[in-house]
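seq/struct pair 1
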Amino acid sequence: MKPQWHKVIGGMAILFLLAACVSLSLADGSPWIDHDLKENTSSSDTPSAKDDFYHYANRSFILNTSVKNESGTVSSIDTISESMNKNIIAMIKTPHTDHNSELASRMYTEFFDWERRNRVGLSPLIPQINAIIEISSLADLTAFLCDRTNLLSLDYLFNANVEVSLSNAPAYAVWIFPTDTKLLDTSAKIHKNRSRAKNSLSYKNSCLTLERLGFTKHESRLLFKAAFKLEQAVDSHCTTFETGTTPRTFYTAVNNIRNRTELENESPAFPLVPILDALGFGAATEFILTDPAWLSFINEFYVEDNLELFKAYLLVHYSIKSLAFLDRTSYVLANGLGSSALETYDSDTDEKFLCETFSAFMKDVVEPLYVRAYNLAPVKQEVLELCARFVSHYEEMLLNEPWLSEETKRNAVEKLKQLKIMAVYPNKWEDYSDFSFGADDTLFDLVNRLKAIMHEHSVRKVNGYFDSDYWTFSTLESNAFYSNITNSIYILAGFLGGTIYYRGMPVEAMYAGLGETIAHEISHAFDSNGALFDGTGAFKNWWSKKDFAVFTERTKRVSDYYDSIRVFNGKQCNGALVQAEAIADMGAMRCVLQEAAKVPDFDYDAFFTHYAFNGCYINELSVEEEWLESDGHPLPFLRVNVCLQQFDEFLNCYDVCPGDGMYLAPEHRILVW
């Protein structure tokens, strides 16, 4: 509710007081001001490396950069993905005669044939829409849901994926997740105002699409409300995890192993097992039911009286699922811009979205083309060599850790030796040589056919084992990460660019970018999540009881320290949320600094400045708030400052002393490793 100050003071005074309030509340952070928010940086600032290194290193970038996109954020490394996308498009436009190039070129042509897309309109949706409308009984609904043709084109009231088992890695299991509730805002309990805005956007977009499909405005609103009602009912019966839930508690809660008979017994009304059969997953020897409470509810809810709710859910979800591959109006709506942007939509992002489409549906077609076109073999070799160097050093770190027993050290080193390095691109790709597009296929047809092919690839994994030669992730994404359940680090080609990596870069820049990234992902194997999985990726204890108690206490110091930090508007950090990422940041920095000590005349100032710049983001307030309350990574200015203040190399480089903002006494430091 807005304050009723206008009853007692004039309008100009209101503006002054409100501006003063906002300025004060956004700059009340401790021990540092949040300079992710541009308004907290001024051209008159004279930041000191001793007091706020993030501000010191990034002031110029923050002052000279503005957030101009819909995401509400811009970072120092955005140019990496932009460059990758330009390279992909340039490659696709270059004439080639091989099969994969022809497939990629056809996708490009169909994507940008707006005349044809607009002419086709929403007609590809009509047959499925009519089939859902004609459902007149629960028996009809069951038959519809168990038809494989239908399953591959819509949301089927739960999600099933073939992924590595938590307990039996590297064997695959079929994971079963609750009903998709995309119409709800998943952060509704955090941001009620933003929740209403997002729900309003999904409401407008869904209703507009349904109207374009022939429903009246009244019918469209009723369908959305019915679908929304089903999602609310499901959401209220799904298991929730409170903030501060330990990783062990979480993984134990979701690791509900079932066989086929047990699933049949737990789902007597809802046709869970018949749907799994239709999908090709029914013969799996192991299923992981992530939320038994959801399955119990959906069986109670799956009755004739709720038939219209289920039909509405299918109609709404199907109508908006493939919008991005239909006409221009649908495409704009799919990109989350809302109906108000239909007349002013800027198409500059079209090629970016096409590249995301390649990554999602044609990675095994486009990736080998990219590797060949840009000669990534030497890059892969350099990345592998750097990975080997840091893995070797990590072994030294573990063996020299004074608080670990010899038994736990041996187990930790064994896990490290089993770590799989996925560098730059996979060793193998799926074969598309027998796949071709029909002359009359629309973009919608192409995408659905590709989805079907990818689904068959997934079916082939049932009862198989993880194969590190094939990646389920696209290397064209600008990312790097660690997988607990495969004990693998992925350094994707899409992340190698900008200030993170370029061939021939100075060693200081290399260590601050790619080196820090590699060490960070290795460190995740031993953070508060990774520590619960063994070298095979199984959710299995490898610690002595005493050592794990010490580890838990050390990780708690990390979350306690972050809990003590005030960011803005009186808000505190959530230490439990960011604990794992903070552990990985500090473990990586220790590893890299110890390797840097071996380099003659290493320039620490260049290293630390480069590191801080790579971590720089400028966020609008709404983005910063959501990051603070729902992202597992610390806010950017804290990732830099908290990590660096743990190390003597940093303190010595800038002569940081007691009383300086970046100083942290040795007894208060929070290194886990």
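seq/struct pair 2
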Amino acid sequence: MKISGWFLAIGCLCPWLSVAQTAKAVSTCQLINSIQRLVADQHYSPKPIDDSLSTYLHRHFLDELDTEHRLFLQSEVAELSRQAIKIDDDIKQNNCTFLDNYRAAYRKAISRFTEVVKQLKSETIPFETKGSIAFSNGHDPYPADVLTIKERLKNRIQFNTLRHTAELSPKWDSIKALLPDLMPKMRKKTLDSYDCFLADLALSDTEFDQRFLDLFCGYFDPHSAYFSTEGKSSFYAMLSAENQSFGLVVQLNEQGELMVADVVPGSAAYKTHKIAPTDQIVAIKHHNQTFTLGCHDLAKIEEVFTNSSIQEAQFSFRKKDGSVFDETLQKMLLKDYENTVYSLVLTQQGTKIGYLNIPSFYGQFEDGKSSVAEDVAKALIGLDEEGISGLIIDLQSNGGGSLEEAVKLTGLFLPGGPVAIMHQRNGKRETLKDPQRGMAYSGPVGVLINGNSASASEFFCNALQDYNRAVIIGSPSFGKATMQQVLPLENAEGHFLKITLQQFYRITGQSNQYEGVIPDLKVPSLFDFKMPREKDYETALQNHPIEAHLTYTPLKWDQKSSWLMQQQQRVELENQTKDINQLNTELAAIYDQKTTQFALNMPEVFKRVHQYNALWKRAKEMNDKKWPYQIDLTKNDQNTSNIDEFLKSTREHHIHNIQTDYSIWQAFLIMQSMKK
């Protein structure tokens, strides 16, 4: 089996992949039909085009367009529902006029909502009332009429005005004394925010159709996705440790201004010797279009940075002294240190444990020249020279990547043998084997995972867990065991489908699909209950084990069960573990409430806001706690950092994060115990 070009990643869930099309003009209806034909021919578990599809598309497309049920009226939803049952029939007949019906209804709803906002801006809205506002954990019913839309929006404006005011100070006396001055400012801020909200609602025909195409592909499974040429390139870029970049690291400040946070050494921005952190980006010009920075243009600005077909742009910067200057920048291929393997040495009381962070399973896609397996092999040499007695491999929030890299990386830690079973829709199976003999590292290994560890990360954990080669630490992983390839759509040049074609199984015949990899030792993390997992997606494929009759030899591990029990008991008795579990319980009680009601008066909102803020403060204090071990670069990295300022600052950031990561601290203690 040729495994290059196969993906084990959850990247298709990233919204920035939906970029404007510049491929050959093809109607949306043609694309829908090309997608459904390819799905019928090759998808791992194809679904029929029937009434179930119609119901799914109607329900979810309305939610996609009107997430909080603020725009459409009940009568409009009822009319669209009557037409929706025929969507599957229309698709079969190459008739997509149903999209025009949704588009017309959406534009009418936006126009109506815009008028309501305009009316409220001209009216005097009381700061407080005797009424209340309810926030639902699900969906509120659609409004019956325009008056209901207006009343709901007025309540939101009142609540957000009160909330913004309450957040200015934790001291009630300070807020109370300044209310006459503060409230008008906060109301204006709240009303002005609806300009951005309305701008986000204004979808072009292409953007509107793109949302439908994304939803249509997602009906077959959560990881099949439509790509234009630019979307495909962006997807490959995400799976590479080297990317085209202007060299600007940007962030929004509290005022919503786009600021330069850092300049990448060696980049086009760096070579100007003018651009510096704290400079504000006030405008970007590309192809005779100038985007003045504001909420209306954030999507366009994101496209300038992420779209691989955009190689040059003119930026206008404002210095702190108010002076403005222009620079034309070209993208360059740069090493992405945030998406690259790095290693450190963790030391306490003479015990050295190696730490290896693998942020993704990047590979040599399109312009990329890096390989995660090769980078790990090099890092292991450096760690071995440090005399480590154990190794932590951190796969927390690693969403996957290349199958080829996953197989090669797995082979670095196994003596040989089968590593996975690939299963196709026709029942055909193929066994993937360790491509090399011997291990690059033979010492004790602990692998850290969380709910965002997916796909290739789970592939790697499966094999090491089945061979008894590592102890898996953390919380259950995402639960994706399917494989995708990007294939061209028939009769649609420049358009592609990332389609699910296979599922991988453990060498035992079991699968982590839907359920995730279950760690050997569980270490809690804040907000784990809020991490979305595969099982949370309505169209996720279910878990179905297969029979496997493979010969493999797990490494002997005497008294493993008793040791795991001792370690789990130790973790559960830690004060930090108890504190995290307690705070998670309190936070879950808030998030799980079906309806949360707020009285629309300042004392009530102030009280509730600061109750919640106290929980967030506790969470921040837990996340900021430093753990008592020394963290050092390897000698090789020390030498490199001395001549690369950006790498040096990046590693300092990494060290800070590790010093305050409770899961890594527990993994360190576990590895100390394995050594003993």
